[in-house]
Structure to design on (159 residues):
């Protein structure tokens, strides 16, 4: 008799676990585990970029060296780790790909800034700044799609 009760309990537990939302589970893992440490890497790299641009700009040489020696290695490490993330569901994979696209665009913009500084080509810097703006727009689109997916699957996102 005990064998039958255990078997029935195992079947009920299996059926209940099958009723879950795999996208919700994947999204929770994606946000709480996969991206948690990566967000810090990205913030740190962007903060380093900000230390030599805009109001913090000193000269082209300082900007070039800092981007090449500090920002690019940090951002590359972030990008490499981001590309290693493998969401389990197509819905989360699609949103994640949007993030990778935006990050790649920003990475290419940093590379273009380095080339522009080397060549002293201010038109190229304007192009790179436009690429950065497009990358930020891609990030906003990614965030919007992530929020939409979270709403659809009852996942609460917090800052």
């Amino acid at each position: 008799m005990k064998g039958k009760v255990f078997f029935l309990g195992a079947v009920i537990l299996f059926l209940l676990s099958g009723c879950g939302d795999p996208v919700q589970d994947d999204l929770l893992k994606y946000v709480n585990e996969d991206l948690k440490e990566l967000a810090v890497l990205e913030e740190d790299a962007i903060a380093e970029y900000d230390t030599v641009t805009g109001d913090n700009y000193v000269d082209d040489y300082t900007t070039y060296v800092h981007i090449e020696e500090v920002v690019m290695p940090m951002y590359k490490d972030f990008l490499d780790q981001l590309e290693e993330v493998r969401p389990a569901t197509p819905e989360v994979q699609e949103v994640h790909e949007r993030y990778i696209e935006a990050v790649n665009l920003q990475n290419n913009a940093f590379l273009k800034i380095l080339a522009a500084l080397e060549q002293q080509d201010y038109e190229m810097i304007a192009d790179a700044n436009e690429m950065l703006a497009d990358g930020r727009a891609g990030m906003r689109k990614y965030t919007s799609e992530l929020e939409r997916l979270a709403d659809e699957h009852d996942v609460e996102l917090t800052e």
In short: The two ends are 52 Å apart (CA to CA).
